[in-house]
Design brief:
The complex is a heterodimer of chains A (about 110) and B (about 110). By secondary structure, chain A is mainly beta. Helix content of chain A is about 0%, strand content about 55%. In chain A, strands 2, 4, 5, 6, 9, 10 and 11 form a 7-stranded mixed β-sheet that branches. Chain A has a 4-stranded antiparallel β-sheet with strand order 1-3-8-7, with no helix packed on it. In chain A, strand 5 (about 45-50) and strand 6 form a beta hairpin. Chain B has about 110 residues and is an all-beta fold. Helix content of chain B is about 0%, strand content about 60%. In chain B, a hairpin with a 5-residue loop joins strand 4 (about 30-35) and strand 5 (about 45-50). In chain B, the strands form 2 sheets. In chain B, strands 2, 4, 5, 9, 10 and 11 form a 6-stranded mixed β-sheet that branches. In chain B, strands 1-3-8-7-6 form a 5-stranded antiparallel β-sheet, with no helix packed on it. Classes of the chains: A mainly beta (about 110), B mainly beta (about 110). The interface of A and B includes residues 31, 50, 101 and 102 of A.
């Protein structure tokens, strides 16, 4: 089975600090995603990456940017983090020709 | 508006019993996935369906794209089945999936 990793698993930052969340896959699948999950809600799509340097906004991109310089790695960046960006962030990988997604373990981010 | 409506929002079952979870779609969906989010927060893939019915152990899922719904049936529920179950559906063409709000399932001894 494919493995999706996320680092770090837990992170506490102060408002205004920069945040870097990393996601990796052990295969070479093209499409990767970043989501956030807030209590009582499903997952909300932040960004999609269709391949290296081919990124597209999701439903809630404001306040976030992404970077994909290698197919195996997809980064989520918060420039000047805000308290309302406290959330659990999930990375996902689309395994192939259909939109079947596999998720990493999540990163719990707290912005104080 | 919301494209994926999931029900019930919460469900409590005794061990050994069963029930069904449902997702209704307000637009035509090409495929649906079901996930279990366990107590550690991990999202576990249960099913991917483009049509029809799939079964895996005590779980069975159906996707009817024409009538715009999908169901997840659990039988002989066990304590480890507790968690939140999400459906997520793809409308087609852009590799995006939309999640339902989830069903929180509690299994009681």
């Amino acid at each position: 089975d494919m493995k999706v990793t996320q680092m770090p698993r837990y992170l506490i930052k102060r408002m205004g600090e920069n945040v870097l969340l990393e996601c990796g896959q052990d295969m070479s699948h093209e499409t990767m995603y970043w989501y956030r999950q807030d209590p009582g809600l499903g997952l909300q799509l932040i960004y999609i990456s269709y391949d290296v340097d081919s990124n597209s906004e999701g439903d809630i991109p404001k306040g976030y940017r992404v970077s994909r310089k290698k197919r195996e790695h997809f980064s989520l960046i918060l420039d000047s983090a805000k308290t309302n960006q406290t959330s659990v962030y999930f990375c996902a990988v689309d395994r192939g020709l259909r939109a079947e997604q596999f998720f990493g373990p999540g990163t719990r981010l707290t912005v104080l | 508006g919301d494209q994926v409506e999931q029900s019930p929002s919460a469900l409590s079952l005794h061990e050994g019993t069963g029930s069904a979870l449902r997702c209704n779609f307000t637009t035509t969906m090409r495929a649906v996935q079901w996930f279990q989010q366990n107590s550690r927060g991990s999202l576990i893939n249960l099913f991917y369906l483009a049509s029809g019915t799939k079964e895996n152990g005590r779980l069975k899922s159906t996707f009817n794209s024409k009538e715009s719904y999908s169901t997840l049936h659990i039988r002989d529920a066990q304590l480890e089945d507790s968690g939140t179950y999400f459906c997520a559906a793809e409308a087609g063409g852009n590799e995006k999936i939309t999640f339902g709000a989830g069903t929180k399932l509690t299994i009681k001894p």
